[in-house]
Design a protein that fits this description.
Blueprint (H helix, E strand, L loop, with lengths): L1 H11 L6 H14 L8 H12 L5 H10 L5 H13 L4 H12 L6 H14 L2 H13 L6 H13 L3 H10 L5 H13 L3 H14 L6 H14 L2 H13 L6 H13 L3 H9 L7 H13 L3 H13 L6 H14 L2 H10 L9 H13 L3 H11 L5 H14 L2 H13 L5 H13 L3 H14 L7 E6 L2 E6 L8 H17 L3 H8 L4 H4 L7 H12 L5 E6 L5 H13 L3 E5 L4 E5 L2 E2 L6
Parallel strand pairs: 3-4
Antiparallel strand pairs: 1-2, 1-3, 4-5, 5-6
Helix pairs in contact: 1-2, 3-4, 3-5, 4-5, 5-6, 5-7, 6-7, 7-8, 7-9, 9-10, 9-11, 10-11, 11-12, 11-13, 12-13, 13-14, 13-15, 14-15, 15-16, 15-17, 16-17, 17-18, 17-19, 18-19, 19-20, 19-21, 20-21, 21-22, 21-23, 22-23, 23-24, 23-25, 24-25, 25-26, 27-30, 28-31
This protein binds one DNA strand through helix 3, helix 5, helix 7, helix 9 and helix 11.
Length: 582
DNA sequence: CTAGGGTTAG
């Protein structure tokens, strides 16, 4: 037995586990008849070895398990762990159910593995079931399991439950805090994530580590809260967490997402540790979304020269750069060269190149690509094409794309509105009415967009037509003033297109209707001394706002930077950095 | 002893 344990130790030490040793063990157990011994822990170790083997030996592990006359909890857990890590975690959930149906005891480990699987397949129902199980057996006193549970809730989008678990946990440790901070950052509650990070620092029970700052930095990036991000960067340097590449990547990304491209590059350039693939990708993407196509492509090349092999994300970043800078032929060439470099294009690459061709007016080529890939499952490509159709006023192709989208069961208001607007541009009011009616029949939900602006270290959030801000009266007054000034400067023609397509009764307030306009107006009120204001939007900045902000920037002689989910827009002197965008 | 929290793309 002692001998066997030594052998086992050998098997799992330094990760280089050898099949030979495992086979030896296995043979020994079988010949001595110990394989069926319930109390023999090495058996489940062997099963676990096969279940987690990178050589895809899960089926073999399963077969071994079936040979056991009376499997123990550990044996069950070994298979469960393998299933949870496999490409089909659903099977882990099924396995867990089967385990409950039998008379087998499950322990904290069982719950932990099953929860891991739930997180991967976003199985809320099972999570609830396991949660009640955990409560019944008092496992919540276990910090590890509590954290897993919290994490699963956050990942399946049940942030409220995640917070509840955090509050009710008997024992918390640093991972519990980290899981909640990261969960909040991911779950559209970035400001709460930042608050929790501050609270953690203040309470001082746990010292924020690498993982903590990753969550907090992600939150700052989402919010565009560069002041808070700056403080975290200071903390990282003080605590020497910047020896970790992952942390550095997150810092670069945070600065890039906040619009501070120079700061991002500074960190990239002065990095103390070895740059990883992600480091390069993050920086290329930063240049790309900021509209500096040439620099992005240059860095992409440089990356290859530095001996770093580009992956799918690198190509996506490079394509994004071409897209933004209008480098159509470069983009197509890059796209075609992917296969030679051993990188298989995915939906995002197709989407990018379709967008690129579409914006350049090469609609037929774009359409051909969409047809060649889309197996009738991917809506994004057709939506992209539809957007391009609107840009070039191609009604026929727009109808084809719309029909496809409806066939696929699109419930996206944008798909309908786009077609409607296109008809409206040709004054085909009957068709407009038809589309609006279809929308009503299908009960298409409108997705409320929102924007953030950071003023004096405080983050303000605005929804469309939002009146919840304490200064809402002032903000709307400012919007009136903006409208008046724009007209006064003789841009009435420009604004008429802004007002186009809005119902008669809404025209009066058209300027107030978008969250980014509210944020810009608030910025103008609050930051009179600054030359530039920054707004962050969770969705794409719409064409109306793009036009209006261009005008505001000119009339008020200010630089206005708006970041949306797609890219940065720098408005200055009546122009935008992304000239090709509309 | 075995288990939990993590960077780019969306």
């Amino acid at each position: 037995m002692a001998n066997l344990n030594a052998l086992l130790q050998k098997c799992s030490s330094n990760g280089a586990v050898s099949h030979i040793h495992i086979k030896q063990l296995q043979a020994h157990l079988t010949t001595t008849g110990q394989f069926q011994s319930k109390l023999f822990p090495v058996r489940s170790k062997i099963i676990e070895f096969y279940a987690l083997s990178p050589l895809n030996e899960l089926a073999y592990a399963h077969a071994l398990f079936r040979q056991i006359n009376a499997p123990s909890t550990n044996d069950f857990n070994a298979v469960l762990r393998g299933l949870a890590h496999s490409s089909k975690p659903t099977n882990a959930v099924l396995w867990y159910r089967q385990m409950l149906r039998g008379s087998h005891r499950s322990d904290a480990l069982t719950c932990s593995f099953a929860l891991k699987a739930c997180a991967r397949v976003l199985a809320l129902f099972e999570t609830l079931q396991i949660h009640s199980h955990v409560l019944r057996h008092g496992f919540l006193a276990d910090a590890l399991l509590g954290t897993t549970l919290l994490d699963v809730y956050a990942k399946v989008g049940e942030i409220v439950s995640a917070k509840k678990v955090f509050d009710e946990m008997g024992v918390r440790d640093i991972a519990s805090w980290n899981a909640l901070i990261a969960g909040l950052a991911q779950g559209n509650l970035a400001s709460e994530a930042v608050d929790l990070f501050k609270r953690m620092k203040m309470e001082g029970v746990f010292k924020p580590n690498e993982v903590t700052v990753l969550g907090a930095l992600a939150a700052c990036g989402h919010l565009g809260a560069w002041k808070e991000g700056d403080k975290i960067h200071d903390y990282i340097r003080e605590e020497r967490l910047d020896m970790n590449v992952v942390v550095c990547n997150a810092v670069i990304d945070m600065y890039a997402k906040c619009g501070l491209l120079d700061k991002a590059f500074e960190v990239f350039d002065n990095i103390k540790c070895r740059k990883s693939l992600v480091t390069w990708n993050t920086m290329v993407m930063a240049f790309a979304v900021h509209g500096d196509g040439p620099r992005a492509l240059e860095l992409f090349e440089q990356m290859g020269r530095a001996g770093v092999k580009p992956d799918d994300v690198s190509y996506l970043a490079a394509l994004c750069a071409c897209n933004h800078a209008g480098l159509v032929d470069d983009g197509v060439r890059l796209f075609n060269s992917m296969a030679n470099c051993g990188v298989k294009p995915n939906m995002k690459h197709y989407g990018s190149v379709v967008d690129l061709l579409g914006r350049a007016g090469r609609l037929q080529e774009a359409c051909d690509i969409v047809k060649s890939v889309s197996m009738g499952t991917d809506m994004v490509l057709w939506q992209t094409l539809l957007g391009a159709c609107q840009l070039y006023g191609d009604v026929e192709m727009a109808e084809i794309a719309s029909r496809k989208l409806v066939e696929m069961g699109s419930n996206n208001c944008g798909d309908f509105v786009l077609l409607s607007n296109l008809y409206a541009a040709y004054e085909r009011w009957d068709d407009v009415g038809r589309v609006r009616k279809a929308m009503k029949n299908r009960d298409v939900k409108k997705v409320p967009g929102f924007s953030y602006i950071e003023v004096g270290g405080v983050i303000h959030k605005f929804f469309t037509s939002d009146k919840s801000h304490v200064k809402w009266r002032e903000i709307y007054e400012k919007l009136d003033e903006i409208m008046f000034k724009i007209k006064e400067y003789g841009y009435a023609a420009g604004t008429s297109c802004v007002l186009h397509d809005i119902g008669e009764e809404e025209k009066e307030n058209a300027l107030c209707y978008h969250s980014e306009k509210l944020a810009v107006a608030f910025g103008l009120i609050s930051t009179s001394e600054a030359t530039s204001i920054q707004v962050f939007k969770n969705l794409r900045i719409c064409r109306d706002c793009h036009d209006v902000i261009k005008l505001i920037a000119k009339v008020y002689n200010r630089e206005i930077i708006v970041r949306d989910r797609v890219r940065f827009h720098r408005f200055k002197d009546g122009a935008c950095s992304c000239k090709d965008y509309w």
